[in-house]
Amino acid sequence: MTNETRYWPPERTDDGVREAAAALAAGGVVAFPTETVYGLGGDARNEEAVEKIFAAKGRPSDNPLIVHLASAADAEALASAVSPLERKLMERFWPGPLTLVLPVRPGAVSPRVTAGLDTVAVRVPGHELARRLIAASGCPVAAPSANRSGRPSPTRADHVLEDLNGRIDGVLDGGPTGVGLESTVVRVLGGAIHVLRPGGITAEQLRAAAGDEAAVAAEPSPAGGSGAAAAEAEAEAPRSPGVKYTHYAPRGEMALVTGRDPALVRAAVQQAADAERDRGRRVGILACAEHAGAYRADAVLSLGPRAEPELAARALYAALRECDERGIEFILAEGYPEDGIGAALMNRMRKAAGGRETAV
Ligand code: AMP
Ligand code: MG
């Protein structure tokens, strides 16, 4: 394990890119900004570097890593085949927050990256600093989010240091990330786009890009459904091993309150907050800007106007970390409408809440 973690500030990115790229090429692991969240990168071909990523994060080894590339042309070197629909998605969304799961070219990356699967997940990040770093390193860069496994993903360099200082070789600070949630992970099978994990690219965008030629299918959640039909659907569906893990969770317990009528949601959140405070717990509330001023709790954090879920997506992980920092034991969060980026936002909120949800 590394002892000293180097820090390259935003005003020294030229040096940072050069030195961080050299560290990657030498088998080191460095954190860098992407447009989704900060990633912890290592040379995807180098088994030892990949081991360091798993060790630094404390990540289960059956959870494969996404390989980040500087350009779409590099994907062809890692995949044994790319279909016309996959190529179309690359052209439309790269650079950007879309990850494609492709058949892996044998030997192209360490089997630790793919967790032994015959597929590899790849994307070209939309953040210029990330692409410069990857290009300068000359490596395909395996990079999961740069947090300790189970913690909320980092959207700022100080979040990375909070979790990984002393465990990685360095962090390149590019300021706060843009999207704030992880990429959308898709697999194209039989002409249909399967969304394995919702994210920065919405189902609506995928549908528009694919046109009439492809259906967009959301995967059944591993926890949802029962009986023979559900079991069969699960067996046939392309799987994304990582989605079964508890993710993105704050230290405190969390619960969601959802509903179409914002006034009812607000009343239910305050009532639940009061009940928890009566039990002697320190309570935090994650609310839309319209409601934040009216709540009584130990911490009230606004995620922005209810009609702008992009802002809530950007703010969510930092808010969860802030609740931890302020010693919050119970977090109540208002749900958001699930269209557009709202689908990914609610997916992460539900994971953080471990399924605790009240609909009003
Ligand atoms: P993270 O790096 O934490 O953003 O997680 C990456 C996620 O991508 C994993 O949890 C998997 O769900 C998904 N993934 C990566 N590689 C594959 C693959 N070869 N097949 C299916 N899903 C993958
Ligand atoms: Mg992650």
Question: Which helices and strands occur, and which strands form pairs?
Answer:
Elements: E1 6-8, H1 13-25, E2 30-32, E3 39-43, H2 47-57, E4 66-68, H3 75-78, H4 84-93, E5 98-103, E6 119-123, H5 128-137, E7 141-142, H6 157-164, E8 170-172, E9 184-189, E10 192-197, H7 203-210, E11 216-218, H8 227-236, E12 253-258, H9 262-278, E13 283-287, H10 289-292, E14 299-302, H11 309-325, E15 330-334, H12 342-352, E16 357-359
This protein binds adenosine monophosphate and magnesium ion.
Tell me what the structure shows.
This protein has 360 residues and is of the alpha/beta class. The chain folds into two domains: 242 residues, DHBP synthase (Alpha-Beta Complex); 107 residues, Threonylcarbamoyl-AMP synthase, C-terminal domain (Rossmann fold), CATH 3.40.50. The chain is built from twelve helices and 16 strands. The strands form two sheets. It has an eleven-stranded mixed beta sheet with strand order 1-8-2-3-7-4-6-5-9-10-11, with helices on both faces. A five-stranded parallel beta sheet has the order 14-13-15-12-16, sandwiched between helices. It is globular. The structure holds adenosine monophosphate and magnesium ion (MG). Adenosine monophosphate binds next to β6 and β10.
Low-confidence parts: 221-236
General shape: globular
CATH architecture of the largest domain: Alpha-Beta Complex
- CATH evolutionary superfamily of the largest domain: DHBP synthase
**For the CA atoms, what is the radius of gyration?**
20 Å
CA-CA gap between termini: 49 Å
Mean pLDDT: 92
CATH topology of the largest domain: DHBP synthase
- Given helix and strand content, the structural type is alpha/beta
Beta-strand content: 15-25%
Note the run of SSEs as H and E: EHEEHEHHEEHEHEEEHEHEHEHEHEHE
Compute the number of helices. Answer: 12
CATH class of the largest domain: Alpha Beta
User: Main sheet: which strands, in order across?
Assistant: 1-8-2-3-7-4-6-5-9-10-11
- Say which molecules are bound, naming each kind only once: adenosine monophosphate, magnesium ion
Number of strands: 16
Determine the fraction of residues in helical runs and give it as a percent range: 25-40%
